[in-house]
Design brief:
By secondary structure, the chain is α+β, with helices and mostly antiparallel strands. It has 26 helices and 25 strands. It has a six-stranded antiparallel β-sheet with strand order 1-6-5-2-3-4. A five-stranded antiparallel β-sheet has the order 14-15-10-16-17. Strands 11-12-13 form a three-stranded antiparallel β-sheet, with helices on one face. Helix 4 packs parallel to helix 6, helix 8 packs across helix 10 and helix 13 (271-278) packs antiparallel against helix 15 (302-315). The two termini are 40 Å apart.
Amino acid sequence: MKVRVKRSVADSILKQGLNLFFFSLNDGTGWCAESPAFTHLLPAEFIKHNYYNSALCMLRRVDDSDIYELEEFDEYNPEHVGTLLNMHYILVGERKLRFGFRELVWVLNNCDFVPMPVMQCMKEMSPEKRQFFISEFKHYAPMLSLPRQRAVSTLIDFFGEVFEPYLPDELRNAMKIIAPLYEPENDDRNIFTLTNVAIISFSENVGNVAAKGDFGNEFLKISRWLADDSFLLGNFKTLLRILRICLPSLQLKLLLRYFYAVSKHQTDFDLQVIEAFSRNRYNCWGEWYQCITDPTGPLNITLPLFCANFLAYMNQQGQRFLSEGEMLTLAYSLCNPRNPTLFFDNGSLLPVCNGGVRADKNFSGFVAYTFLLQLNDAVIASAEGIKSLAIRFLDLWASKDADGKGWVMRHIPEVRWQIINLFMRSQITFCDLMFAAEDNILDDPEALRLRLLIYFDKFLIRRYSANKRYFYYEQQRVFPHDMETLMAAVLKRSFIVVRPRRNVCFGNDVLGFRLSRGKEIDDKTLARWENQWLLSRIIERLKEVTSCSPQAGNIFFVPYSRKMLLQIKEIFRVPCLGPDFPDSKLCSSVFTCSDDAEDYDICSPMEVDSNASLPHFFRCAKGVCFRSAYHLQDTFHTSEWEHYNLLHCLEIAGRPMLSETPAGLMPKKSISELSQALNQLLNHHQRFICPHCGQLLMAESNARVRCSNPLCKFRKKF
């Protein structure tokens, strides 16, 4: 299958000689081009050969016509092979471009390597160019499977030079022990896959293989070292030598295992080992692995970031990690200029926020409160005051009639009709149309007082003072707005009645009872213990805030002031007036855990709130958190070395980064700064990517940048 391409698009590409393009499979629905020149999704059936969900396609002109076609790369076609070699020479030989070898390396590993088409193309080259490719094939061939290396050797022999296929004896022998039927001459697995099998697959079945022989083989030693925590590796030279033929995930695993060995005194800490992980003369092998497995995907820079920050902190005597600018420089130097996307495993560097333990928005508060209300006699002490109140309600709920002598009320709620009648000499009939006249307003304060007392007795609870001389109305619930309007006008708040909630608890074991008393504690017992712990502290805090002593039942009668009310609501996190149903129906858990599968940033607590009452908490970019991700992030509480991160490794190296605070473990300021820089790293790296073609922006003079892609129409713009 072939796809037609617009001439305008094809001309702009072909004139540069770069006419091979990667496509990646998009969720199995079609093929998406890496190059922005191709905007359409190719059908899934367009590609016959699928290698790691990647494919290489070629753009060519059909004869001398104006028709251009896109077709899958064919390793048997000399024209296609010649295009591949020419493109490689331009990118690597002339431009010295990082990752310029991507297409050639991918073809060597994934396609059928046929020497004949390559020979035909190389015979037509100049001697200098031919020698360049001979050196290139010798350079890349050692990573290939043995059959493919034999094919490369045949090619090089044709031009009078020698290439000896490479397969370490230790790796060959390890494969023979693991798989006795292994035949390297017929096995098409490259050196990365074989190493992974020898180390990872063997470590998973170390007990079954142990009976077949000893562990004298270096690869199997490393494998057993990973599987057996008590095994002593002894010499790390072999480990460092084969490091770059291990998968990126395995490299990081080996590093963490080394730190575990140091923590168990199985070996001495040596900073040079970390430097070998960071700066290895075989680093290019990692780039080759990226090209053959995921040529269009983001580059994993977890290990370089880990090692670079660790070394920076150790070499700076614990003063600082890499700055964001330094990490951007590192990322810039590692990425592929034609596809500069990067990623790193947040959790392998620092703890990742999982939502934390945060205040439950439905929490009903540590205390419940109500008001004691008294009639405000000053408001209704005179006929003028009563008239003023009545006109206020009439103006609010009714409209003036045409003569301006009364108010007409249409379709008003019954509660409004009842309130209006409290202020009327003669009662207004509740009907569709009601009329209230100004001269019908009550002028007797005592009569209004009696009406109000009778009316409020229907809704409010009457409480008497100790000497029975005074009484108060207790408000225990929120009333409709119209009722609240009347109460606000004729009643005054005398006291705030406050009592501790009887079933409140923190939840999520914020107090650490399970950690200190045993994990077998059930949830009900934990809630009861937390409530007992809280009750005395709530009472003491109420005494401190209100300057009052509790009465029977731990009830506080606090003289009312708006300032005091706001203070109580804020300190004890009370959202509203105490409800009129039991505690059991309320949300009694203070905190909720939002641990889910969402991809969060690295946890970066910035400070501890030392003024919080119950309990202390962290502040971060996402708000308030009562248990940060640094909870138990030390070697004492982390039993499995596979879960180590930068914090554990620094602690093992004698640089502990966590300190105890009232809110829990808090990282040092340098860690918080590092976490914030890491959270911004990828976002800021995007600024170095051309928004039009997706390739890397190159630095020019005067702090300016220019697109590195010669095909980009914006390459001349800064």
